[in-house]
User: Fold these one by one.
Assistant:
Number 1:
Amino acid sequence: MSSLSDNGKLNKGPGRPPGAGRGRGRTAQRGRQSEPAALAEVRQIIGTSTAEPTLLIEYLHLIQDAKGCLRHRHLAALADHLRLSLAEVYEVATFYHRFDVVEDDAQVAAQTIHICDGLPCQMAGGDTVADALAAKEGANFRIIRSACMGRCDGAPVASVDANYLTRTNAAAIQERLSNPVGAEVMVPVVDFAAYQAGGGYRFLRQCLAGKMQSAQVFTQLEESGLRGLGGAGFPTGRKWRLVAAEPGPRLMAVNGDESEPGTFKDRHYLESDPHRFIEGMLLAAWAVDADAIYIYLRDEYPHLRTLLERELAHVTAAGLCQRQIHLRRGAGAYVCGEESAMLESIEGKRGLPRQRPPFPSQVGLFGRPTLINNIETLYWTRDAINEGAAWQDMRSFSVSGRVREPGVKRVPAGISARELINVHCGGMMPGHELAAFLPGGASGGILPARLADIPMDFGSLEEHGALIGSAALIVLSQHDDIAVAVTNLMRFFAHESCGQCTPCRVGTEKAVAMLAAPKDRADRDTFTDLAQVMADASICGLGHAAANPLRCALRYFPGTIA
């Protein structure tokens, strides 16, 4: 069922294709030799019988969970155990932000406080919280400013050793340090019994019993008009049909790494009704005849990992899951929201986007054709199939910022920002007036209030230089500085660039440096050229979209950055 066995050790996924083994045939480790004591520790943590290089990231998580960090001696021992070079292990461990690599003799504080520095949290006072705690940082605790934690409706957000605090302040964080609690246990609003009582899994049972054919499902899904809700908007029914036409064996990967600042709808739906997602996922795997399913869930959602393991056990016990399901843990890399980068990460490598041919001919997970859907798309799949052409096209917006009632809002597709704010979010906060908004999170661009009446949907925002993307609406008021917001977004993109291509790696860093320079030195033409190069020449969508905040600031807010 899961990638974790009953004894807590990790099960192996499918092996790598012939000739692609990492360290294949190696008899001695390259570079630093491992210490016997460290090797024994590592084997104890991950299981002495387990040595699968594709599980490298999972092993790194297990070691860090046990030791609080990743010391060089443990990395050398892991490389020895997996018969990889130390460079291969080290490059993966240092690529992901959630891994903490330290020297063997380094002193690490007893507890770690992660404080979100995403735009919604900065607007809500995250910097003030960090500054108030900084003077007391030392042996007892340390502060790490972290990228968006997926709880923007509760900004500012912090975590103390994987326990998350929302709408927090310095005093509340210090109280949690003094009185630590166990891991958060999440009980869904709709559990397995309640879901079945409401008709859940009825359609899946019909499919498994042979009462439905995959061709019928593809047709009904195409008629519904359901599109991918992770950002790209590819027609879901067409994607399923194309993957099913590829020669088997096939696999399925679920993208649950919603790392776009301002986005938290996947978390919301899994917390409330996880079995609606699980049924959609199993329907997709049945329809394309996938041998196994890989769920890639962001590391900032540990409570959802536990929840899914528990609820999937109920589904398996009921005989509804006929495929092996592997839960894979992200490690903090926004770029892994890009499909091919996610596949690389699931395979235990750095999340570098692939140079790939058009869909669906690209090589998927472990060299096999792979169906990839995000969590929300699968969440609505059952309803879309059942209703077909009668299915109403709705959109889930993650709303944060200067509104009275932030949260996930399920509204008709094409709604305007003004209507969404006034009708569904209780209007603006007291003392705040709408000044600007981001319709699609960090990558969606920034639009002025005068454009708040245009429809927010696929194809309607592009002419204005914006994107709906993951439908993360971040609302700014007259009290927010556009230049500060743009700087925050560009720092995020610079931090999250995988570094593989020069336009993105250097372009984002150059943008941050230019934004920090005095305004009289800022050159509008240079900003324009820089944004154009990033958009045109970057390998993947991260670099393309990183130009949007700059372009929108130059177009709609002249004088703010140049």
Note: The chain has a mean pLDDT of 91.
Number 2:
Amino acid sequence: MKKRIFKSIKNYNINKLFQDFIKTLAVYLVATGCALALNAAAVMNDNIFGVYMLAVAIISVTTESYIWGVLASIGGVIGVNFFFTFPYFALNFSIAGYPVTFMIMLLMSVLASFLTAKVKFAAIISAEGKKRAETLTEMSQAMLTAGDYDTIAELAAEYLSKTNMCSVVVYLGPPMQSEIIKFKTVNETDEIILNSVLEQQVALSAYESDKPVGADINEGSQNCKGTYFPIRTPDFQYGVVGFLFDDKKVILKDMYSYIDVMISQTILALQKQQMTEQAQQILLETEKEKMRSNLLRAVSHDLRTPLTGIVGSASTLIENEDRIDREVGRKMLTDIQQDAEWLIHMVENLLSVTRISGGTTSLKKQDEIVEEVVSEAVLRIRKRFPNSKIDVTVPDELLIVPMDATLIEQVLINLMENSIRHSDSPLPISLKVSGKKSGAVFTISDQGKGIDPSRIPDIFDGKANKGSSDSSRGLGIGLSICKSIILAHDGKIFAENNINGGAKFTFVLPMKGDNDYA
């Protein structure tokens, strides 16, 4: 603290010094003029010094330093001796008893000056304390609404700078390796100073030593300009906050304590964000585990029956090759082929899930023409179901959507296959694409029996249809894959029944920009 006070005296503003001198001189001259006028009018002749006492009080209130009040006190004693003590207009301190009177008057005026300055300083401290309390409340409320570490660091820098009237830097993480750095400066050059290698090294020292380090700390660096405080709890180190105090201002005695309080508020916000992220991670892991369980149930349901059919048909053909009718044998081979194709399709779906949620491969989004993706998906589904009818409707304008084309084709194939297999209707299925403000909308609908309403809420969760004994009859894993792919594209997917009968599946993919299609 002594170091900071010495800096304040050394760097005292020359302009302010001159202004205080002019104020002191003006008040002193006015007081002397008033005293001479009162003396000439024979009013207050015995209490002329009271006029100077009043002048000392005014000077102490209107100037920055108590020094001016002390100088005014000495000037008042000299003025009384020069103007109002015989011999007039001459200094004479040898009058009997005058040295004692001089000292008493000087002590009274100096004491009045100090008391006035103390009251003034107390008023400043009181106003500053009120302002700090309001700022702390405002900071607490703002921190409660912060939703990420970046916002918390920005708010901390803003309020710490606002309260202490200085430039501030906040590091979350080690200062020289921090991913989040926030500056709040009062001068243009302060950010350059705080961002220098020397200042970052001192900040790193505070981070590693777990104690304040810097220009205004006894243990601090002799060469740096900033003062750095660690942001940490006994169990975790969050980062460092640095201050570049103005040398022209004296740090209030309790400023460091108040800084600690504000850092504590920042730590509470960081802990809250930590707990929020941990809760989200737990929820995500729970959802993953739930999806994994549903997928395993769907896999066991959808793979068991075709494998059993393949093994049974193959065994029958091998054991009864000479006794099986040619047409029956062909039918059994056709069933084996269809079940094998179904298994290949299921493996493709499982690979799609692994690609999205396995963590080894990220989506490779590229701008794709929707009509081309739809065309490829329809071509593939027609090869697998040559007797099915599919009505395709696409808009006249060319829709451009960022997507992984292979995965979106997989979604379209899954949805069209579900409609073909589960509609129990010979009527055509419909695939319609449209461009809206919400994005590119894909709708696959049929004219069959529709979806059991009780199944709609969890139809995308990968649960097998309990009422089906044939894998080709269960919705199984396919819809769960569709949901995973669409969510990975930041899209939406939902199912419903048509008013006139049949099921309808719709998914929406965001387009480039706001409704940006060529």
Note: The longest helix spans residues 255-319.
